[in-house]
Amino acid sequence: MDNDSSSRIAVRLRTWIAGAAPGARLPSTRSLVAEYQASPVTVQKALQALTAQGLIESRPGVGTFVRAVRTARPSDYGWQTAALGSPQAPARSASTTMRSSANDVIAFHSGYPDGELLPERLVRAALTRAVRSDAALSRPPAPGLPELQSWFARELGASTPAGVTPPQPSDVVVLPGSQSGLSSIFRALVGHGQPLLVESPTYWGALLAAAQAGVRVIPVPSGPDGPDPEELARAFEETGARLFYAQPNYANPTGAQWAAQRGELVLEVVRQYGAFLVEDDWAHDFSITTTPVPIAARDDSGHVVYLRSLTKSVSPAIRVAAVIARGPARERILADRAAESMYVSGLLQAAALDVVTQPAWQTHLRSLRHQLQARRDLLVSSLREHAPQAHLSHVPKGGLNLWARLPDGTDLERLARDCESAGVIIAAGTEWFPAEPAGPFIRLNYAGPNPGAFPEGARIIGQAIERNSR
Amino acid sequence: MDNDSSSRIAVRLRTWIAGAAPGARLPSTRSLVAEYQASPVTVQKALQALTAQGLIESRPGVGTFVRAVRTARPSDYGWQTAALGSPQAPARSASTTMRSSANDVIAFHSGYPDGELLPERLVRAALTRAVRSDAALSRPPAPGLPELQSWFARELGASTPAGVTPPQPSDVVVLPGSQSGLSSIFRALVGHGQPLLVESPTYWGALLAAAQAGVRVIPVPSGPDGPDPEELARAFEETGARLFYAQPNYANPTGAQWAAQRGELVLEVVRQYGAFLVEDDWAHDFSITTTPVPIAARDDSGHVVYLRSLTKSVSPAIRVAAVIARGPARERILADRAAESMYVSGLLQAAALDVVTQPAWQTHLRSLRHQLQARRDLLVSSLREHAPQAHLSHVPKGGLNLWARLPDGTDLERLARDCESAGVIIAAGTEWFPAEPAGPFIRLNYAGPNPGAFPEGARIIGQAIERNSR
């Protein structure tokens, strides 16, 4: 530390300046010499330092004054480069799916359903009731409102077959959105530098959470029927991983739904390797022609950690999700949540519970199913007609997205730019791959605004593919 | 993997059982032999496995049936012990300050102000307006609602002296509570295994976030005037740390407020070591007899990362806080927030902004100041009269807590138990120390329910100290 007297004087004067009006006159050098018991040279040195910092200005023959102008100097934060060093994980750029867009574009990129697919009246009524209740001014227990814990446990319990112990409310930890759950699970159950198996392609948000947690991501290929159990076993064997992250129902981005038997086989492999399956049931409320039966329903040995969100189906403002886990794993996750955010707003929890326990919620889900089916079918037929080069390996039975394989050699970046300049936003498939993409894919969300424009959107995409594939 | 045919049959039958009603009869062994093209011995082996798993039961001479009873078997999650290994950070137990308590106890332990100190009408009115607005159904930008960013920037800018560039709205990242901010800052700016300097004693939630981030905590002693700058310089020098976490105004738990000059000196040391000061301004709205001037207001070189929360002063249901940081540090923090939770509920952001921009908010803050003063003075005088052994090194000029030093040799655990059995909950000071406590301290919150019972509470504490000190 620089302890010499001129910097001590500068520090004291800076405090004085901080409290002074712009333009105020500083005490004369003579009185400063007396006050600080220092030599005139020392005082002068302090004043020069403050002048250099832009805090004061001296008018020769008149005096020294607090600078009147609040300078908005451009700052150089270069020193931070040394303090911060390299990031621990390579930064993933912001996802296309989080972009908001103007009203006049055809938006296929979003990760969220359009407002017209949300139960608006239900949400506003539930929030209004919650605002009037105790929930608006109180703090709920760390694991969540007990009634909401029970609801999440009952939902999973409803699919639990005979002979399997259904989850208990105390197995549930309420979360402020499922992204927080992914972060906590990877931090708490995998840990820094340890391996994590994921489907490839898989949800970009999970890849982001994995990078943040500093875990080592190992891709396991996954197709329309899910991952190959033998391939999964090999990955566990080779890496020593103890956790596999997957979306067995209507995976994002592919829309794949595992057959029941495939699920059983995967679960057997997970059990055999003494590992966890993290089942991200993100699209539970977005089924179209099948019923999503969680794999977690068939497990009572603590091997499946189950994640379910309400944010996308209820409202983006109601960030409420839950993780269901048993045994020490649940304790680790809860401890991480407590360190991360203490608890989830009781107001949002009360409103979410209110929405999903209204009879109108079931009516809404039925109508949503029909709307999603109509939108999906319209986009599928539009693509077949106007963009036949975009190959769909299958039509998803739920979820919000189509996953299309484009001709080899398509330049995805140029394609996306071309589409955008023609008023169509698409998401390049690259974001969903933990490593190199297996080919040029795009993801098209059929739950966005204005489905009437789907044929026109498909036409623009078809033309852009024409121009951008060799 | 066990690929033999009996387990393949078991897997398929389990799927069948999952869809069957309890009590349903399984196909005969003969038809299973035909269906699976397997020997009777193989089929029998599969059935035995399913019986052992409690899924089916055979009634000799009658047939095999899906088990009717949903057994709630006690599960053994011992396998998880191997999968999880030791926790990366030693677990800190749940804080006393988060306990909720019955109405008939005298509660000095909480970290939150009682409901009667909250602006209830303002909060409900603001929430009601937010529920009717777009915020109830839309997703705000990741860094926060622009108007709320501006408000946070203006608040800090109001204390910014001449010659210092005030913070811009774009320097603000809105958070779902300040705990999330601490976690993000430690993860993003310190990183796994790296050193972090903290005041000792300091906020237990910061110690929890540090443990979660896997950083190495190094205590710097801090008294009623703040840390000794020379001591701080020595700690930077010896550890190579690049970040110092502190609460310069009304520190939790001690209530200390640094003098302006002390703040300048600390900032000089931080600058000299090319480091960050994380200023946690948790009690900005809880001043009593002084004005809290953030140190961040005097810095435009990106050395101070400033944290301000509204959760405690507005409502525990409105989890909204903000971090103000400049340069690459802000980018790192924002990237961590995006990975952790994408965005903060727009409904809560809109309601928070509404509350703090009402004229009634200023009226509320003035009345809160008087209430806190009356409560603090009552608890101080009650302790002096009924528990003179509890020594207060100073009377805090803001915040919510008294920090009392008890006689050497006091058994804090027994003391807390004794108090509790007499209807008084206190928080042992141990939680606030990153290492061994510097002595037996207790923290007493004077913002809890029922201040009328403070004298009685002090009497019980005094008697318990009598019994538990040697």
Explain what the structure shows:
2 copies of one chain form a homodimer. Chain A has 470 residues and is an alpha/beta fold. Helix content of chain A is 42%, strand content 14%. Chain A contains 16 helices and 16 strands. The first copy, chain A, has helices at 5-19, 29-36, 40-52, 78-84, 120-132, 146-157, 178-190, 204-213, 229-239, 260-272, 311-314, 328-341, 346-356, 359-386, 412-421, 454-468; strands at 56-59, 63-66, 106-107, 172-175, 195-200, 216-223, 226-227, 243-246, 276-280, 304-309, 321-324, 391-392, 401-405, 424-425, 427-428, 441-445. The first copy, chain A, has an 8-stranded mixed β-sheet with strand order 4-11-10-9-8-5-6-7, sandwiched between helices. In chain A, strands 12-13-16-15 form a 4-stranded antiparallel β-sheet, covered by helices on one side. A two-stranded antiparallel sheet of chain A has the order 1-2. In chain A, α8 links the parallel β5 and β6 (216-223). In chain A, α7 (178-190) packs across α8. Chain A is globular, with a radius of gyration of 29 Å. The mean pLDDT of chain A is 92. Chains A and B meet through α1, α4, α5, α7 and α8 of A and α1, α4, α5, α7 and α8 of B.
Helix and strand layout, with pairings?
Two copies of one chain form a homodimer.
Chain A: H1 5-19, H2 29-36, H3 40-52, E1 56-59, E2 63-66, H4 78-84, E3 106-107, H5 120-132, H6 146-157, E4 172-175, H7 178-190, E5 195-200, H8 204-213, E6 216-223, E7 226-227, H9 229-239, E8 243-246, H10 260-272, E9 276-280, E10 304-309, H11 311-314, E11 321-324, H12 328-341, H13 346-356, H14 359-386, E12 391-392, E13 401-405, H15 412-421, E14 424-425, E15 427-428, E16 441-445, H16 454-468
Parallel strand pairs in A: 3-14, 5-6, 5-8, 8-9, 9-10
Antiparallel strand pairs in A: 1-2, 4-11, 6-7, 10-11, 12-13, 13-16, 15-16
